[in-house]
Amino acid sequence: MKKHNFNSGPSILPATVIAQAAAALHDFDGIGLSILEIGHRTDWFVAVIEEAKLLVKQLMQLNDDYEVLFLHGGATTQFMQIPMNFLAPGETAAYCDNGIWGNKAIQEAGYFGNVHVAASSKDKNHTYIPKNLSLPEKANYLHITTNNTVEGTQWHEIPPTHLPLVADMSSDIFSRPMDFKQFSFIYAGAQKNMGAAGVTLVVIKKEWAASIQKQVPPIMCYQKHIEAKSLMNTPPVFAIYVALLTLRWIIAEGGLTEMERRSRQKADLLYQTIDSLPIFITSIAKEDRSLMNAVFFMKEEALLQPFLKTCTDNGMIGVKGYRTVGGLRVSMYNALPLESVQVFCQLAQNFAHKHC
Amino acid sequence: MKKHNFNSGPSILPATVIAQAAAALHDFDGIGLSILEIGHRTDWFVAVIEEAKLLVKQLMQLNDDYEVLFLHGGATTQFMQIPMNFLAPGETAAYCDNGIWGNKAIQEAGYFGNVHVAASSKDKNHTYIPKNLSLPEKANYLHITTNNTVEGTQWHEIPPTHLPLVADMSSDIFSRPMDFKQFSFIYAGAQKNMGAAGVTLVVIKKEWAASIQKQVPPIMCYQKHIEAKSLMNTPPVFAIYVALLTLRWIIAEGGLTEMERRSRQKADLLYQTIDSLPIFITSIAKEDRSLMNAVFFMKEEALLQPFLKTCTDNGMIGVKGYRTVGGLRVSMYNALPLESVQVFCQLAQNFAHKHC
């Protein structure tokens, strides 16, 4: 049976990327060795990581004011590493509290300095994006999570700020064109729109990294990673290679404009279907709905398990909501074909008609 | 041309492991999804990580006093994470200074507390293992690097100590039976004897982890990783799967006793050949020679490039010495077949006869 993969991450990858990655496991680029067996300082791998960096800059339209790093760990490691570098005791950083992941970032930051909550959607269980930020005059940076994977909300407009802007883009990176120059620091775990779990993309304004005065353990110091060109120690070679393949795929398919067009098409179909079927409810503010993760519930809780079973029986993976939220979540990352959303919507309609 | 892969890491993997990993990229375990596309909290992946943990304990003959973790980052991340957890300002940890990696561990520890150097081989350029340790009465732990990848030395006897013993086994893990119960903490980057780059094995005595009093940022806290069963955030799924395949391979081939037998056979052949050919010299103390990485030089520096070219021309990869050391390094990890060492030795003999 054909599988439709709505996983929230690790999630679906383009079929061509998987085929190319598998081929490179057998023989990387015709050199007679597996991609898993080559040294990270060989010309072979240096070409991989350098091309990947270049494609990131190309997609983001960034110049040499920025450095691209591929670091170990997930975005959660960055929750800690960012304040470890940019926040000292007695200093303040501003954070938007819009969901579980932003919240975890706040918790990690608390170990290094003061956190000023610039905006919170906690009052309504993170079902919307608060538009009015309260920013302190002086803070080291403002941190936002551009897409809230768990709650299903997304910043469709990036808030203006006088502070260096830091963005966790783990679940919507490379899904839309944007003025990336407004950010001082962008990061994203790879396992949604950019490849396989095990590497995190960091895009950092060099000037900001160079301004760090804090004593930071070398392996966590961004400035040292920049100097070492992202090769301070053995990097996650295979995960970086899969990221390169995915970046090439995005560009070949038409870049960020095309990714956004597809995302809107998929999300529009899904939300229209959900809205039209009274067995589903969603409390997410319409204008803040995520194009990546649609979060909704069965009006009658008793129908959840039967619906989930129908999904599984029809080859649909990953439709169950996040463990602390419940309900349903349909993730529609770049690699998810429109067809999968169409099949899901058809199934939802059939199920609704049967249970009305 | 057949390739002989003497890379120091990322390095050669068993052919069956690569074939199985490539098959799982197409379709993991017949479920119709790639290993890159499955969620880390699915039953599928939980079975992978749980089996991998079990096999580590089986190979090390450890009971439930120990926890096995598969963490993001390389061993270098552990250089920082260990003192971040176990060393506070004003406290002391003891370190053996036996090579470049142990030295990096010392540097990272210095950011968290005092370092007492218990033994150093710096006086002779790290060409031997110092047997007499000067241990302070009170220190939080003693750190050793069991095999020095760059310098080509290895602790063939683990030094006795009253302190909790922490070992970086990145380059000789699972290459020999050992009383693993003497350690409170073992870690190893996967990319030599245990799989692909992008994951680090940590084996930790639960009692010791539970004793941590320090406030540690959650994502870096071992105790929290233990509580979350190594799934605090999205782990490096594919790298853990390759580790599982490699662990299965080690066991199927006969376990640590067999790995040691093979290592001795390969290393004996190599060192005997080097010792018998006057064009090569090595300054490593004979009794401290590494079974994993043989480091040696050409007596006449002018012959180095011609010899390296001969190696490359004959399909030999990774024979060049570490960038700060120079000369030659032949790495003979578990997956390297005896045949590769035989071919290298034959080539070395032919080259020597031509240039004598």
Entry keywords:
14 strands; 7-stranded mixed beta sheet; Aspartate Aminotransferase, domain 2; Aspartate Aminotransferase, domain 1; globular; 2 domains; 356 residues; alpha/beta; 3-stranded antiparallel beta sheet; 16% strand; 10 helices; homodimer
Biggest pleated-sheet summary of chain A: 7 strands, mixed
Q: Which residues of chain A form runs of ≥5 with pLDDT under 50? A: none
What is the CATH-assigned architecture of the largest domain in chain A? 3-Layer(aba) Sandwich
Number of helices of chain A: 10
As a percent range, the share of helical residues of chain A equals: 25-40%
Looking at the chains present, what oligomeric state does this protein adopt? homodimer
Radius of gyration of chain A: 21 Å
What does this protein structure show overall?
2 copies of one chain form a homodimer. By secondary structure, chain A is α/β, with parallel strands linked by helices. Chain A folds into 2 domains: 15-253, Type I PLP-dependent aspartate aminotransferase-like (Major domain) (Aspartate Aminotransferase, domain 2, 3-Layer(aba) Sandwich); 255-354, Aspartate Aminotransferase, domain 1, CATH 3.90.1150.10. In chain A, 36% of the residues lie in helices and 16% in strands. Chain A is built from 10 helices and 14 strands. In chain A, the strands form 4 sheets. In chain A, strands 2-10-9-8-5-3-4 form a 7-stranded mixed sheet, with helices on both faces. A 3-stranded antiparallel sheet of chain A has the order 11-12-14, covered by helices on one side. In chain A, helix 2 (43-60) crosses helix 7, helix 3 runs parallel beside helix 4 and helix 8 runs parallel beside helix 10. Chain A is globular. The two termini of chain A are 28 Å apart. The model of chain A has no long low-confidence stretch (mean pLDDT 97). At the A-B interface, helix 1, helix 3, helix 4 and helix 7 of A face helix 1, helix 3, helix 4 and helix 7 of B.
